[in-house]
Amino acid sequence: MEKMEQASSISNLGILDLTGKKPEDLEGITLIESVGILIAPASLSGTLMKITQRNIGMTISLPETAGKIKMFNGQLTLSGDVFANHTGAPEDILVLVGQVVITSPIPKVGFSEVVVAGQMIAPKSDEAMIASAVTQLSGQIVYYSSGSPRIFIGDETFSKGFFDLIDDKMAMVLIGDHEIADDVDAATLKQKVSEIVLIGELSVPKALVPVTQFLAVALLGSIEARDEQDA
């Protein structure tokens, strides 16, 4: 295996993934700093203790395994089938990093361990299964009750015209900074939305604060009130 670059330090990374590395691959590294998430196998623990570390947001130590480590990171939507590991082995480890939305029920868990670092949003019906499968959690797991949530990642504005297109009640999973327009009233939200899962910020007219608070079954962020003239 190739050694890491011949620099004496590693810095300014969102994720530093050291899975698959051996102690000799870190020879010459004296400093690791300004890293959001450091992921490393347990076999590197002694080596990392000898390296100066500064401003490390989160460290994840992965156990030794005869299987593979399957990692997903970022803002992702994944089917519940990813937990089944149909093409893998029972010794495999699943690592989910970032903001991950599980969009459908989990049929089974086919991994020896599941590691979550960040936020995972999953069906409420699978809460017991997930609780027994997750061996490391650095962050939060939140649940939605609806069978088919609508997922919005980024920066969206939802007008009354949007809600008028919805025939049945929907669950909304909002990741990022979103806005409900001034032409939306409380009656429309109550009629069209069954629940809200919010990771980020949701800007709403002041009159809609109570109803959005009521609909928010999981809130990892904030609901911001605004006056109409601020729109």
Can you give me a brief rundown of this structure?
The protein contains 5 helices and 12 strands.
Give a verbal description of the structure.
There is one protein chain. With 231 residues, the chain is mostly beta strands. The protein has three domains: 9-62, no CATH class; 69-144, no CATH class; 150-230, no CATH class. 13% of the residues lie in helices and 50% in strands. The chain has five helices and twelve strands. The protein has helices at 45-49, 127-133, 160-164, 186-192, 209-215, and strands at 9-17, 31-41, 52-62, 69-78, 93-102, 113-123, 134-144, 150-154, 157-158, 170-180, 193-205, 216-226. The strands form three sheets. Strands 8, 9, 10, 11 and 12 form a five-stranded parallel β-sheet that branches. It has a four-stranded parallel β-sheet with strand order 4-5-6-7. Strands 1-2-3 form a three-stranded parallel β-sheet. The chain is globular, with a radius of gyration of 21 Å. 25% of the residues are buried. The model has no long low-confidence stretch (mean pLDDT 92).
